[in-house]
Automatic annotation (TrEMBL):
Statement: the UniProt record of this protein carries the keyword Membrane: no
Protein source organism: Glaciecola punicea ACAM 611
Name of the encoding gene: queE
Protein name per its UniProtKB record: 7-carboxy-7-deazaguanine synthase
Top-tier EC class: lyase
Binding-site residues, substrate: 13-15, 28, 93
Phylogenetic placement of the source organism: Bacteria, Pseudomonadati, Pseudomonadota, Gammaproteobacteria, Alteromonadales
Family indicated by similarity: Belongs to the radical SAM superfamily. 7-carboxy-7-deazaguanine synthase family.
EC id: 4.3.99.3
Annotated keywords: 4Fe-4S, Iron, Iron-sulfur, Lyase, Magnesium, Metal-binding, Queuosine biosynthesis, S-adenosyl-L-methionine
Length: 241
């Protein structure tokens, strides 16, 4: 039996990565110890008993708040189904969703015809259905100093890296090398001999931190050089949650 702590549930358009533009039900779980200084969901970091509420309040809440409710993972899908959402894609994010075992919830969702996706920092083991799309956004050298797990990197269907400066790209390169996930096109450019495949596998996305102009320019330039992809947090440009 797994207990999930849920900060919010809402229906919107996925604004990041390969599923950008896909109507999605977002389940944001509570708690994250990683400490990224630019994190856009800091209200999910702490799990304080005084912020626990019942599920009705979560469905009513607007804006960022540290309140959350507790639910058994087998009860979460029925709760979502009651909301009358039309989206068939469920994105589990946080906070850090891989603090929780997501096998039961994702399996029930797939059994009911949903597709699922997890957004994770790569600092915890990814526990989910084999068809869940896993987005790893590896948090290299963050405040808590937590290592990126090979299990998460090797499970990733896409790697989505938030960047603001060249150092962040260099850190990603080192991690991809360590995990043997090097972009064949980069090798081709470097050595003019390795056979190129058209796309990196897993796909690599660069995501400018906080829509900064210089970060966006660097991400565009690097994506073109490497044949990587750009992820611009579409929801922040179109003003949806
Ligand atoms: C809030 S995190 C939650 C999931 C998980 N803890 C993680 O970091 O992947 C969701 C996504 O937003 C990205 N993100 C958070 N703050 C951001 C910011 N200010 N600018 C760009 N991306 C950001 C993260 O890198 C991650 O890909
Ligand atoms: N629309 C929308 N797309 C998103 N993709 C990843 C998000 C996240 O916070 O994990 C997010 C989010 O918060 N909103
Ligand atoms: S790992 Fe994710 S939720 Fe945690 S601080 Fe970093 S961006 Fe925020
Ligand atoms: Mg977000």
């Amino acid at each position: 039996m797994t207990t999930l702590l849920v900060n919010e549930i809402f229906e919107t358009i996925q604004g990041e990565g390969s599923f950008t533009g896909t109507p999605s039900i977002f389940v944001r779980l509570q708690g994250c110890p990683v400490g990224c200084p630019w994190c856009d969901t800091k209200h999910t970091w702490e799990t304080l008993p005084q912020h626990q509420v019942n599920s009705d309040i979560i469905f009513l809440k607007a804006g960022d708040s540290p309140s959350y409710f507790s639910v058994q993972s087998h009860d979460l899908l029925p709760l979502l189904e009651k909301q009358g959402y039309t989206a068939k894609h469920i994105v589990i994010t946080g906070g850090e969703p891989c603090l929780f075992d997501l096998n039961e919830f994702t399996t029930r969702a797939h059994d009911k015809g949903f597709s699922t996706q997890i957004e994770t920092s790569g600092t915890y083991e990814v526990q989910c259905h084999s068809d869940t799309w896993v987005t790893v956004s590896p948090k290299i050298n963050m405040k808590a100093g937590m290592p990126i797990l090979s299990q998460a990197m090797q499970r990733a269907n896409e790697i989505k890296h938030p960047i603001a400066m060249q150092k962040h790209i260099d850190e990603l390169d080192a991690l991809l090398h360590k995990e043997n996930l090097v972009n064949p096109l980069k090798e081709l450019n470097d050595k003019s001999q390795i056979k190129a495949t058209p796309f990196q596998s897993p796909m690599v996305y660069l995501q400018p931190i906080s829509q900064q102009e210089r970060a966006t320019a660097l991400a565009i330039k690097t994506c073109i050089e490497r044949n990587w992809r750009l992820s611009v947090q579409l929801h922040k440009y179109i003003g949806v949650e």
